[in-house]
Design goal:
Chain A is an alpha/beta fold. Chain A is built from 5 helices and 5 strands, in the order αβαββαβαβα. The longest helix of chain A is centred in the C-terminal third of the chain and has 18 residues. In chain C, a hairpin with a 6-residue loop joins β6 and β7. Chain C has 2 domains: about 90 residues, Alpha-Beta Plaits (2-Layer Sandwich); about 35 residues, no CATH class. At the A-C interface, α4, β5 and α5 of A face β5 of C.
């Protein structure tokens, strides 16, 4: 393996997560907080840390069915995240609208607006399911470095 | 047997540069792993901060349109460079002594202020309101803790200087040599107020909970570093790793240098740093909650300042007339 | 000083973290509401689950092969209403939570089933192989009678049950 490939392998061990709440009911956001804080499901083992700023992020976790209200803001924040990045839709709301599917106020599925790479269904998904989704996202991210 | 190295080697290889960077990142890794174990989690691998720096090298560097580009990109360079230089001034008891400049403790104090100023410049030049809040909070914290550290340094200088019969000495090599001959200042009751003041100073300087207010993630979205990505952010991480080594090394040199030389002295110094990092930084960081800026500011103007003042007065009063 | 006791306890006991994804996960709780599972052989075809599903995840569609069942897991909210109201117990919630997938497989993460179409044994008309609800029939049906009942279209099923026990 070349030195560059080895360095990329090293770099892939430090994916930083950023959460965008696109109109979520906060159920999935509580589970996201749980994956990092509760000793039982520790996402820091994978090298992940929740960053406070979108500029520091590598993997974007989007929750919520993208209400019309938040569409412009979510797109702006998404554009602030530097490449290479991977997008994970957490919960059923971003994938299909979930239980809010027929609402006039939402713009789900969000893959009309964002290039989603991994889906994690669940309402809300269990923390180990989120960790499985993040692990898949890390593999995709490694291929994009 | 202390040795003196040419300044470029000292700044780039040992004890600054490569050695200090590796040591600082290793200490950070140990800190994160130990913090996780204290919380009952597994935690990241010990080399995680190295992975973070490598990863940041692969990210795109972005800057806001409204940012002042020269200051925005110059601040991390200035901060990292100052810490590289500061590392050449920190003595390792029995192994390395800095090139004798008359008042190198004062130069070190000035250099220790530069990372804070670099953070302030970063926050204000980014053009973001969160950066501005981070800038003002960092400024308040610096005003709060610079007073105590100056008085602590004065107390140590008075103690060592008057005890050896000269005026107050600001040469770190002489301070270390005095302690190697007469016992560490940790066991000197006259210095205990100053040591207590230092115990409050270093969490604020290193930016750890309960005083990590300027870079509070949940409050100001990482404050001054909000708009940084890619290599400038990596430089800021490098700067904070080096600063940890400098501040902890300064604490060791001022109060607890070991009387050994050579390899034993170096290993002992490393063990001291690790112990200080795990007990003094990690346990405090995990066990405490963040203070508000007004609480922290008022607190520093009360207690650490009072302890440092008592330390200066005690050092001056009790040292005059002590036999060398 | 509570945090000191917590520190010593955590350092002595070691981490609580479960090994997933580097090892098998801890077993899921028994009543965890996970993925839906459908058994077409015991479905009655009442379509209650489709009416009651709050997010519209369950769809039945009439095809040439019979009555097709589709449930897209990515819009199911795992509420359990379908399992609660199903009279036959043919739709059940498992404890399977491991559903993360890449975007390309979005529409493949679904549960499908088919209730095949049959030709009525009596009148030769169109019928479905749904499980008839015979819990309240007295006296209870024998296995042979049940098989005969199942092979008929709905109208002939009614006739069969009415004429049961009446000698021709």
């Amino acid at each position: 393996m070349t030195l560059l490939a080895k360095l990329k392998d090293v770099a892939a061990r430090s994916p930083w997560l950023y959460r965008i709440n696109a109109g979520s009911c906060n159920g999935c956001d509580v589970e996201l907080a749980t994956t990092a804080l509760i000793p039982r499901y520790d996402v820091e083992r994978l090298g992940c840390v929740y960053c406070g700023s979108p500029r520091h992020a590598d993997i974007v976790l989007i929750t919520g069915p993208l209400t019309k209200h938040v569409l412009a803001a979510a797109q702006r924040v998404y554009a602030e995240i530097p490449d290479p990045k991977v997008t994970v839709a957490v919960g059923v709301c971003p994938i299909s609208g979930g239980i809010f599917r027929e609402s006039y106020a939402i713009c789900a599925p969000i893959d009309q607006y964002f290039p989603v790479d991994v889906n994690v269904p669940g309402c809300p998904p269990r923390p180990p399911a989120i960790i499985a989704g993040v692990a898949k996202a890390i593999a995709i991210w490694r291929s994009r470095l | 047997m202390t040795s003196q190295l040419p300044i470029l080697v000292a700044a780039l290889v040992f004890p600054g540069g490569v050695f200090a960077l590796a040591l600082g990142l290793a200490l950070k890794g140990a800190d994160r792993r130990f913090a996780a174990r204290l919380q009952g989690r597994v935690g990241p691998p010990l080399a995680q901060p190295f992975f973070d720096i490598v990863k940041l090298g692969f990210k795109r560097t972005m800057a806001p349109d409204v940012a002042c580009a020269p200051v925005f990109f110059g601040a991390p360079l200035v901060g990292a460079a100052s810490m590289l230089l500061a590392m050449t001034l920190v003595p390792i008891a029995g192994v390395y002594a800095p090139n004798p400049i008359g008042g190198d403790l004062l130069v070190l104090l000035y250099l220790l202020a530069v990372p804070g100023i670099a953070l302030m410049l970063a926050g204000s030049s980014s053009g973001s309101p969160y950066g501005a809040i981070g800038f003002s909070r960092e400024m308040a914290m610096m005003i709060a803790y610079e007073g105590p550290i100056v008085l602590i340094v004065a107390a140590v200088a008075l103690r060592v200087g008057l005890a050896t019969g000269q005026g107050p000495t600001f040469s770190l090599s002489q301070i270390v040599a005095y302690q190697q001959a007469h016992g560490a200042l940790l066991f000197d009751p006259v210095m205990w107020p100053a040591i207590v003041a230092f115990a409050f100073f270093y969490p604020a300087n290193l930016g750890i909970v309960p005083f990590d207010i300027p870079e509070a993630e949940t409050e100001v979205l990482e404050g001054p570093l909000l708009e940084y990505s890619g290599r400038p952010l990596a430089l800021f991480k490098v700067m904070s790793a080096l600063k940890a080594v400098v501040v902890l090394g300064l604490g060791v040199a001022l109060f607890i240098p070991l009387p050994f030389a050579g390899v034993v002295g170096l290993v002992g110094w490393l063990v001291q740093l690790l112990a200080l990092a795990l007990i003094g930084v990690t346990a405090v960081r995990v066990g405490a909650g963040r203070m508000r800026i007004d609480q922290a500011f008022v607190f520093f103007l009360k207690w650490p300042l009072a302890f440092a003042l008592i330390g200066v007065v005690a050092a001056a009063y009790f040292s005059a007339g002590v036999a060398p | 000083m509570n945090f000191l006791t917590l520190f010593t306890r955590n350092l002595r006991r070691g981490p609580y973290t479960e090994p997933f994804p580097f090892g098998p996960p801890a077993p899921a709780p028994k009543r965890l509401r996970g993925r839906i599972e459908f058994d077409a052989k015991i479905c009655e075809g009442c379509l209650l689950c489709e009416k009651l599903c709050p997010s519209g995840a369950i769809r039945f569609s009439r095809t040439r092969e019979g009555l097709a069942f589709d449930c897209w897991h990515s819009t199911c909210v795992f509420c359990g209403t379908c399992e609660f109201y199903c009279p036959a117990g043919s739709i059940r919630q498992t404890t399977d939570w491991n559903l993360a997938h890449v975007e390309a497989e979005t529409f493949a993460v679904a549960e499908h089933g088919l209730i095949p179409a049959i030709v009525c044994a009596e009148c030769g008309g169109k019928g479905l192989d749904t499980a008839p609800n015979v819990s309240k029939v007295k006296p209870p049906l024998s296995d042979e009678e049940y098989a005969q009942l199942r092979a008929r279209c709905p109208k002939c099923r009614n006739k069969f049950l009415k004429n049961r026990g009446k000698t021709p």
